[in-house]
Amino acid sequence: MDTLMNWYQAVADCEQRGEPYVLVTVLGVTGSVPREPASKMVVTGDHSFDTIGGGHLEYRVCQQARERLARRDYTPELAHFPLGASLGQCCGGRVSVLLEAHPGCQQQLVLFGAGHVAKAVVQILAGLPWRVTWVDSRAAQFPKEAPTNVHPHLTDDPVGDAPDLCDGRHVLILTHNHALDFELCRTLLTRGTCNSIGLIGSGTKARRFRQRLAHRGFDADAIGTIRCPVGLPQVPGKRPMEVAVSICAELLAMTHQVPATPPRRGVAWKDLRQLIEHPSEGDATP
């Protein structure tokens, strides 16, 4: 167990931050076992919270849970574990465990720059189901405490970090440096794997960037994927919060055009019966 947070606190924390997790529940036991039925724990990609008994049983359950998260497999799984010599536990009983994986928030944003507009954007997104990676080279620009769904990424090479950070994510480029803005645009267009790119700036900046990118060999279709000036033109104002509202409104309007993740529900009885009749074996070794 990595922290002192209990399972229901961990569920609330993961839901607030939009982090994928697996809720593990002991459904049934036979013989001598370390924990009683209804014991629960939560497993994320990096941490676990609470316990279903510890030992190799818990290690194997965490391993299976993380494998499901890595595959983005959010179907329920019922696994049986014999607590014999093969698990290094001498209890001698059996434990049936239900693993319920939850996808967390699928909307992810990488935000470059920690100036006034970026701070206002973070303030808005703190109340929305987004996971934000906030990138800057200036430690002093980050607040002492970031919102729970925002992960500050301090780096002296934002351009070098950009391809991996932005893979499959939406991107906002709101830095204080036009040269850095251009290099980020060039790098992300070259990689071509982010979901969208929004760039702060005037119409003049947009025209200059389009010309420079064309001279670098990018075609009009690729250049046209960069939204600059970023934000909805219907939302007026030049104050940082007004600009941030415009940017976030555009981002929300754009992402809501994509079909949403199907609503989650509990395990239906027919599904639970299927799991009971055809469970996976957590430890196949006799």
SSE layout:
Elements: H1 7-17, E1 21-30, E2 40-43, E3 48-50, H2 55-71, E4 77-82, E5 94-102, E6 108-112, H3 116-125, E7 131-136, E8 150-154, H4 158-166, E9 170-173, H5 178-191, E10 196-199, H6 203-215, H7 220-223, E11 226-227, H8 240-255, H9 269-277, E12 280-281
Parallel strand pairs: 4-12, 6-7, 6-9, 7-8, 9-10, 10-11
Antiparallel strand pairs: 1-2, 1-5, 2-3, 4-5
Helix pairs in contact: 3-8, 4-5
- Helical residue percent? 25-40%
Strand order of the largest sheet: 3-2-1-5-4-12
Which structural class do the helices and strands define? alpha/beta
Helix and strand run: HEEEHEEEHEEHEHEHHEHHE
Strand content: 15-25%
* Separate helix tally: 9
| Poorly predicted runs of 5 or more residues | none
Mean pLDDT: 87
Main sheet makeup: 6 strands, mixed
Shape summary: elongated
Number of DSSP-assigned strands = 12
Task: Give Rg in angstroms.
Answer: 23 Å
How far the N terminus sits from the C terminus, by CA atoms, comes to 27 Å
Nutshell version of this structure?
With 286 residues, the chain is of the alpha/beta class. 36% of the residues lie in helices and 21% in strands.
Structure description:
- This protein is of the alpha/beta class and 286 residues long.
- The protein has nine helices and twelve strands.
- It has helices at 7-17, 55-71, 116-125, 158-166, 178-191, 203-215, 220-223, 240-255, 269-277; strands at residues 21-30, 40-43, 48-50, 77-82, 94-102, 108-112, 131-136, 150-154, 170-173, 196-199, 226-227, 280-281.
- Strands 3-2-1-5-4-12 form a six-stranded mixed beta sheet. Strands 8-7-6-9-10-11 form a six-stranded parallel beta sheet, with helices on both faces.
- β2 and β3 form a beta hairpin.
- α3 crosses α8 (240-255) and α4 (158-166) packs parallel to α5 (178-191).
- The protein is elongated and about 75 Å long.
- The protein starts with 6 loop residues before the first helix and ends in a 5-residue tail after the last strand.
